[in-house]
């Protein structure tokens, strides 16, 4: 081939579409969290590393599915204005997919979200509107913009394509990666799409699998997960699929976030620390359990918070 000949990509099997990079994330066994002498009952803890998705979080899965399914149905077409309320990761993922597929997108986001998240959304070309009152107000404002005829709300909180993404991908991956041996699944709950979709799939394979959801306790404010007021409970949530809901203390979640990085090399956010803590509690109580939990995103989205610079002892956060 001459230096000026055009590249024939049909002969290069390594080239793929970015959409094909979503999912199939690693499931890794924890080695030193907590120390082996603390749990010596045969239970193992497995972390699903969703930060390996192209836009860096578990929300890549529903973002792709919500847009692709809407296209397939003819609900949207390239050039339409998309609208969404988001606390961060979904907005980043939607901004990425919108850029790929040719959609302008406006995102309503609580102003207390990290600067890294805001910068990532605008890097993908999204219009970002910050809301002082929190995610509930952001949801209301997004719906009002749609009512005013200024775009189409994807509505991650009530859109069945959100949970379908996890029924079609995350659940089957966990089942295959554990060779059907998974006994417990743990997920923080935000839109509840992850826990609902995964639970539906896993319960169909083995109804005995225990599904454990995590919500902040009354005093906590953990990015990406919520303790929803009844009026704002996501419509996609199916409480019948969740066997237990655990309240998470914010300090404990932050300590375990740092422990994941320092003892396992898993650099993740606060909700992932919450899931790691919950996994240790489940492991202590269930000999020979195979426990999988979601590591929602990567820790570089939280560097500006200063949370990684805190010196603490895991012994005081059990």
Write out key terms for the chains shown.
alpha/beta, Cysteine synthase, Rossmann fold, 10 strands, 8 helices, 2 domains, six-stranded mixed β-sheet, 318 residues, four-stranded parallel β-sheet
Note the main sheet: 6 strands, mixed
- Helix percentage: 25-40%
CATH architecture of the largest domain: 3-Layer(aba) Sandwich
* Number of E-type strands: 10
Give the terminus-to-terminus CA distance: 63 Å
User: Whole-number radius of gyration?
Assistant: 20 Å
Classify the beta-strand content into a percent band: 15-25%
Lateral arrangement of strands in the main beta sheet: 1-2-10-7-8-9
- In the CATH hierarchy, the third-tier topology of the largest domain is known as Rossmann fold
Elements, N to C (H/E): EEHEHEHEHEHEHEEHHE
* Subunit arrangement of the protein: single chain
CATH class label of the largest domain: Alpha Beta
Can you give the mean pLDDT?
89
Number of helices: 8
EC number: 2.5.1.47
Binding site for pyridoxal 5'-phosphate: 89, 190-194, 271
Organism: Psychrobacter arcticus (strain DSM 17307 / VKM B-2377 / 273-4)
Cofactor: pyridoxal 5'-phosphate
């Amino acid at each position: 081939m001459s230096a000026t000949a055009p590249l024939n990509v049909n002969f290069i099997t390594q080239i793929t579409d970015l959409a094909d990079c979503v999912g199939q994330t690693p499931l890794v066994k924890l080695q030193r969290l907590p120390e082996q002498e603390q749990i010596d009952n045969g239970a193992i803890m497995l972390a699903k590393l969703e930060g390996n998705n192209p836009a860096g979080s578990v929300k890549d899965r529903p973002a792709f599915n919500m847009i692709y399914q809407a296209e397939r149905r003819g609900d949207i077409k390239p050039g339409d204005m998309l609208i969404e309320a988001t606390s961060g990761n979904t907005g980043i993922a939607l901004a990425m997919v919108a850029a790929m597929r040719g959609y302008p997108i406006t995102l309503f986001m609580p102003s207390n979200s990290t600067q890294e998240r805001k910068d990532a959304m605008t890097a993908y070309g999204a219009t970002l509107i910050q809301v002082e009152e929190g995610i509930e107000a952001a949801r209301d404002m997004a719906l009002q913009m749609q009512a005013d005829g200024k775009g189409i709300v994807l509505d991650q909180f009530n859109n069945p394509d959100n949970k379908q993404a996890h029924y079609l991908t995350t659940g089957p991956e966990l089942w295959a990666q554990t060779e059907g041996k998974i006994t417990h699944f743990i997920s923080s709950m935000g839109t509840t799409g992850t826990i609902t979709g995964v639970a539906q799939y896993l319960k169909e394979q083995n109804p005995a699998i225990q599904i454990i959801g995590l919500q902040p306790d009354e005093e906590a404010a953990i990015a990406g997960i919520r303790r929803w007021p009844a009026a704002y409970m996501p419509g996609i949530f199916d409480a019948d699929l969740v066997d237990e809901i655990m309240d998470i203390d914010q300090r404990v979640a932050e300590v375990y976030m740092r422990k994941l990085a320092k003892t396992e090399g898993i650099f993740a956010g606060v909700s992932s620390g919450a899931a790691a803590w919950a996994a240790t509690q489940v492991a202590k109580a269930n000999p020979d359990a195979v426990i999988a939990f979601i590591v929602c995103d990567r820790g570089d989205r939280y560097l500006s918070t200063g949370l990684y610079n805190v010196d603490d002892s895991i012994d005081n956060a059990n």
